[in-house]
Amino acid sequence: MLTGKNILIGITGAIAAYKTLELIRLFKKNNAKVKIVVTPNALNFVTKTTLESLSQNSVDIEQFNIKEYKPEHIALTDEADIFIIAPISANTISKITHGVCDNLLTSTFCAFKKPILIAPCMNTNMWENPATQENLRILKERKITIVEPEVGFLACNAEGKGRLANINIIFETAKNILLPEQILKGKKIVITAGGTKENIDAVRYIGNYSSGKMGIALADNAHKLGAEVVLISTVEVKKQYKVINIKTAQEMYDAVKDEFQTADSLIMAAAVSDYRVKNKQDHKIKKDGTPLVIELIENPDILQEMSKIKKENQTVIGFCAESQNLLENAKTKIAKKGCDYICANDISQKDIGFSSDNNELYIIDKNLVISKIEKTSKQNAAMKILEKVYG
Question: Which position among 101, 121, 156, 320 bears the catalytic label?
Answer without folding.
Answer: 156
